[in-house]
Design goal:
The structure holds two protein chains of two kinds. By secondary structure, chain A is mainly α. Chain A has helices at about 10-15, 20-40, 45-65, 95-120, 125-145, 150-165, 175-205, 210-220, 225-245, 255-260, 265-290, 300-325, 330-355, 360-390, 400-405, 405-420, 425-440, 455-485, 500-520, 525-535, 540-545, and strands at about 75-80, 85-90. A two-stranded antiparallel ribbon of chain A has the order 1-2. Chain B is mainly alpha-helical. Chain B has 22 helices and four strands. Chain B has helices at about 5-20, 25-45, 90-105, 120-140, 145-150, 155-165, 170-195, 205-210, 215-220, 230-245, 255-265, 265-290, 295-300, 300-320, 325-345, 350-380, 390-395, 395-410, 415-430, 440-465, 480-500, 500-520, and strands at about 65-70, 80-85, 225, 230. In chain B, the strands form two sheets. A two-stranded antiparallel sheet of chain B has the order 1-2. A two-stranded antiparallel sheet of chain B has the order 3-4. In chain B, a hairpin with a 6-residue loop joins strand 1 (about 65-70) and strand 2 (about 80-85). In chain B, helix 1 (about 5-20) runs antiparallel to helix 2. Chain B is globular and about 70 Å long. The two termini of chain B are about 35 Å apart. The chains are: A mainly alpha, B mainly alpha.
């Protein structure tokens, strides 16, 4: 189906096979609208169509991943008059393709959650799926964007439908409030991002991100005056835009409200997908930016950026965990938990800033973390849905006695929560360990012994290790409250079986089993898959090069 | 025979899986006991290398080593081994773990009669998972694997205390969880730093290699190696020591212990006091002291002082207790103080004494907690002041209790005596070594701990067992066959270790201790 191992794909038509997942999603979005208009707004039928479309997207993204070569594949190379190097709009490599697989699989899961818990109340199914699938397309394109404009369009394509999805349930006040908060924050941070992007364009004179960064590296080598100052401002402005997407502190205020106001499936979707796409984009852009700069040049710039990102990450982790402790609404608790986890992953962005050779390890750690994090969050949200379906409440006390009423479901939720804490022998521990191991590995260069990371960079990385590890202990507090409620508290009066969809219960238990297996017998396989994904990027080439 | 350790460690886990599917309560209990029994029988095979007087084994020698790659990166830069092995240090702990776990399972046989008991299936499965975790800690030779097993112990224990515990179980369970998790995250930092401060070709999680590879040790001991501005070896030693000291537990990190021990159901208290505390001391001897010997010498006086504080403070707290179980719990703090002192004094006699003390305390504290449990099961309370003349009502129980409590007290010819005496003698001996002038005062103060122990044990014995029998104890039945079946082996071991310390424990650990000390003074 795909052309045999091309070096690059220049025109749009030839690039389409590589964008099959996105095309499937767009097609499905249109089909749901048309079917809704012609054949009636049957919730069940349209849900099945959407699920089928997501499945096709998943299968095609899987098949593209398995056929991609080791070298990154530039897509839709535009020949601009003043450009010598090729300037593609998108770059697809195994890492991005792996992220697409995770994203599409999670899209399937979100549709399953919708079918289990939200479908009965849904009135506007076609519109809902158009928005959901469009946001998935945006997130998928965010990951592979190699052009400033494409990046901004992709971010907006991911954001706009999300705003509408958050406020989709118009009858609920909380939903409208959440949507408004989300859109206001989104607009403000987008402004920063445009500002940063235009500054970058002004500095480099091109929209193509790799070309732009190559030029900036050359300018840095030439020690252009005042360049570093504007660069720091531009990059931090971009960071604010992406920080909003991943709900990094202090751009996180929308997150708890949106999770509480939106329907369960939307909250599930946003808790993983929007953060994942933002982090993938951020880490990739950072590696692109830092890789062409020789290690001994612009140490002060590296140190400034490393400290800036590290402060953001530390604030995000710590505030997320501390704020989660006070919550009694499980949705808000999970929202703060997701903020903390985005903070953990944000730490990885510091690695390529400090050390080029740490890049592949950071990429590998991020993709593994995202995959396991998706499973953990799916189990937590799905478990919440089951409890809400049974008791009609979503607060902490609704979980009381669940361990005795539905042992398998409670066990699945417990495993997911302990995995979110980062306790062995569950998958969450392994990926958290790899994350801090990537931070540790960044402190020593493996390729160029002469070009060790700066002392400041090393100190920043070890500080992050300490912060992540100590926060593991803090986070136990609030996750354990749910477990305590399920097992240690007396069962409420209406004792008996859990009245909730069987498929949902199976899904939660299966997630628990996956987390147990990935933490033990399949640990090596997870690691190897992540390494396979990470070892094909531009960073790997550069790290192996003469630097 | 090579895979025997795998079977020992995972036999309880297989038992846990069996428990999850079996239909009736009796079958579940039998399966659990069988799995634990298999682990015990197999663990006895670990003694075979010591049949022929091999106490002076080669440095770093281990038996029954199983070593297969577990997790590795594509480029081979990151290697985790599934690495199990035992030496003279770990063998006694493995056997002790298998024994105490089996006895705890037998002690759980009357589960249905516990107040508010439900969920036998989960209880047995968690107890067996806990056993696998403890056995894994005592056999793992890869730091990563050790850490996994170390943390696997936490969650089952949280549930075992939190679900089946006493009135303040929620508080006690969470406190235990948080304290010990705080300790283990410190270990996680140490583990990563030990791995990544070494240049890529040499990086390893192998505990023996980390201690013995001169190239790696040169980096660790270098004054120029800094971790966040601190001297590397010093800060790592402190972090790792605190990590394990919480488990021991050493004052001031001990406050989780009385709560957890008192609230836990009897069999779980046996495991907590008998085994879990020992993982802390074992970790010091397996990881902290061999890998950071210079810092160990540097901190010897300070840590010995803390050990003595532990002994005396624990003893004074014990004197003040009115609850029988709290009394036994606080006495553990005092007795584990000898372990800290013995290890910190860095001397052949004191270190052997510390290991012996851990084994002996494993036996005597498990026995004491069960004795208290037997009494509580009959009386429904544990107030020392409300007992009296129990010996008259329950003569067999009284006899066994005397052995158990006197073993704790350190009466000669019982197991508690040997360890304490060796630690104190070793402390005096350390005046030419690590402790210098501080050796005499510390040794004298440590010796007074035995006086306090005699005071609190004898006073308690007098109030509970002697004197006129109370009218409310007329219905107390003497120990039944199952209870004797649990107490008798422990009593026999208490005597056995006390009479033949050389043959039972010291012969095994001599070589391992010499090995650790050789690293400390090259």
């Amino acid at each position: 189906m795909l052309p045999q191992s091309p070096q690059s794909v220049n025109d749009i038509a030839a690039a389409l096979p590589f964008l099959a997942p996105e095309l499937w999603l767009i097609t499905t979005a249109l089909v749901t609208l048309i079917v809704g208009a012609i054949a009636g707004r049957d919730t069940r039928r349209i849900g099945l169509i959407a699920a089928a479309g997501a499945l096709l997207a998943l299968l095609s993204s899987w098949s593209i991943l398995s056929q991609l070569g080791a070298a990154p594949l530039p897509l839709i190379t535009s020949a601009q008059p003043d450009e010598t190097a090729s300037a593609p709009l998108l770059i697809l490599d195994r890492w991005v393709a792996s992220f697409r697989v995770v994203l599409m699989a999670f899209l399937m899961a979100a549709i399953a959650v919708w079918g289990l818990f939200d479908a009965q109340r849904e009135r506007r199914t076609p519109e809902f799926f158009t928005l959901l699938l469009a946001s998935a397309v945006g997130m998928s394109l965010m990951a592979s964007a190699a052009n400033l404009l494409v990046m901004i369009v992709a971010i907006e394509l991911a954001s706009m439908p999300s705003f509408a999805l958050a406020a989709f349930d118009r009858r609920r006040r909380a939903a409208s409030e959440a949507g408004l908060k989300y859109v206001v924050f989104g607009a403000a941070t987008s402004g920063f991002m445009y500002y940063g992007a235009s500054l970058l364009y002004g500095l480099g004179g091109t929209l193509s991100i790799p070309v732009l960064f190559d030029r900036l590296a050359a300018l840095l080598l030439a020690e252009e005056p005042a360049l570093q100052f504007f660069l720091v401002i531009a990059l931090l402005a971009l960071l604010i835009g992406i920080g909003f997407k991943i709900a990094a502190v202090p751009f996180h205020f929308w997150c708890p409200d949106v999770f509480e106001g939106a329907s369960l499936s939307v909250a599930t979707w946003l808790s993983v997908a929007s953060k994942a796409a933002g982090l993938v984009l951020l880490l990739r852009v950072t590696t692109w930016f830092c890789a062409p700069i020789p290690p001994d040049v612009a140490i002060s710039l590296r140190d400034t950026l490393a400290i800036g990102v590290a402060i953001l990450a530390i604030a995000t982790i710590t505030l997320g965990n501390l704020a989660a402790y006070r919550q009694t609404s499980i949705r808000r608790l999970l929202a703060y938990s997701s903020i903390a986890h985005a903070g953990y992953m944000l730490c990885l962005v510091v690695v390529p800033i400090v050390a080029i050779s740490g890049g592949p390890a950071a990429l590998s750690a991020l993709i593994a973390y995202l995959a396991i994090y998706a499973v953990m969050n799916l189990a937590a949200f799905c478990g919440l849905g089951l409890v809400a379906a049974d008791t009609g409440r979503e607060d902490l006390s609704a979980f009381a006695g669940l361990g005795w009423r539905a042992p398998a479901t409670a066990a699945g939720i417990s495993v997911a929560l302990l995995s979110l804490v980062g306790l062995p022998p569950f998958g969450g521990f392994l990926v958290k360990f790899w994350l801090i191991a990537a931070l540790g590995a960044g402190t020593q260069s493996t390729v160029a012994p002469a070009a060790q990371p700066s002392p400041v960079g090393t100190a920043v990385l070890w500080t992050l290790v300490v912060v992540v590890v100590l926060n593991t202990a803090i986070s136990l507090f609030y996750y354990a409250r749910i477990i305590r409620e399920m097992y240690l508290r007396p069962t409420p009066a209406q004792d008996g079986r859990l009245h909730a969809p069987l498929i949902g219960r199976i899904l939660v238990a299966a997630c628990g089993l996956i987390l147990l297996l990935t933490g033990t017998v399949f640990a090596d396989r997870v690691r190897r898959s992540a390494d396979f994904a990470a070892n094909s990027t531009r960073t790997a080439e550069l790290a192996a090069g003469p630097l | 025979m090579s895979g025997i350790l795998v079977w020992i460690v995972f036999a309880p886990l297989l038992g846990a899986l069996a428990v999850l599917v079996l239909p009736t309560a009796l079958q579940m209990k039998r399966a659990a006991a069988a799995a634990s029994g298999v682990a015990l029988l197999l663990s006895l095979f670990l003694l075979t290398p010591y049949a022929a007087e091999t106490s002076g084994s080669a440095p770093g020698h281990t038996d029954f080593r199983v070593r297969v790659p577990w997790i590795s990166t594509a480029d081979g830069a990151f290697q985790v081994q599934f690495d199990l092995g035992v030496d003279g240090l770990s063998t006694p702990f493995v056997i002790l773990t298998a024994l105490i776990s089996l006895l705890a399972l037998v002690a759980s046989w009357d589960f249905e009669r516990w107040p508010g008991s439900r969920g036998l299936r989960g209880y047995l499965a968690l107890l067996l998972i806990l056993e696998t975790g403890i056995l894994g800690v005592f056999t793992a030779l890869d730091f990563f694997l050790f850490y996994i097993f170390f943390e696997v112990m936490l969650v089952p224990m949280y549930f075992l205390i939190g679900i089946w515990g006493g009135s303040r179980k929620e508080y006690a369970a969470l406190k235990f969880f948080l304290y010990t998790l705080a300790g283990s995250v410190l270990l996680l930092i140490v583990m990563l730093a030990l791995y990544f401060y070494v240049p890529p070709g040499l990086r390893t999680f192998d505990l023996l290699e980390l201690a013995r590879n001169s190239e790696i040790q040169r980096i660790f001991r270098n004054d120029q190696t800094l971790f966040l501005g601190f001297r590397f070896e010093t800060i790592m030693f402190v972090l790792a020591f605190i990590g394990f000291a919480i488990k021991i537990p050493m004052v001031p990190f001990h406050t989780w212990l009385p709560d957890a021990h008192v609230e836990a159901p009897t069999p779980i208290s046996m495991i907590l006091a008998g085994l879990l505390l020992k993982t802390g001391g074992y970790g010091l001897l397996r990881i902290v002291y061999p890998i950071f010997p210079e810092a160990a010498t540097q901190f010897a006086v300070a840590l010995s002082t803390l050990g003595v504080v532990c002994i005396l403070y624990g003893a004074l707290c014990t004197l003040a207790q009115t609850d029988l179980k709290r009394l036994v719990a606080y006495s553990s703090v005092s007795h584990m103080g000898y372990v800290v002192l013995g290890i910190a004094a860095l001397n052949q006699a004191s270190m052997q004494g510390a290991v012996f003390q851990m084994i002996a305390h494993g036996i005597s504290s498990a026995m004491c907690f069960y004795l208290v449990g037997v009494l509580y099961q009959r009386a429904g309370h544990r107030e020392i002041g409300r007992f009296g003349g129990i010996w008259m009502r329950m003569p067999t129980f009284g006899a066994l209790a005397t052995i158990g409590f006197f073993a704790t007290m350190g009466l000669p010819a019982l197991c508690g005596f040997v360890g304490e005496v060796m630690v104190v003698l070793g402390t005096f001996d350390a005046r030419n070594g690590a402790l210098g002038a501080a050796a005499y005062p510390l040794g004298i103060l440590a010796a007074t701990g035995a006086l306090f122990a005699a005071a609190y044990i004898l006073w308690m014995m007098q109030r509970v067992f002697l004197g006129p029998a109370r009218p409310d104890s007329t219905a107390f039945l003497d120990t039944d066959r199952r209870e004797i079946g649990i107490l008798a082996p422990l009593a026999a071991l208490a005597v056995f270790l006390g009479v033949l310390p050389q043959q039972t424990v010291l012969n095994f650990i001599g070589g391992a201790v010499t090995d650790i000390l050789r690293l400390a003074s090259p």
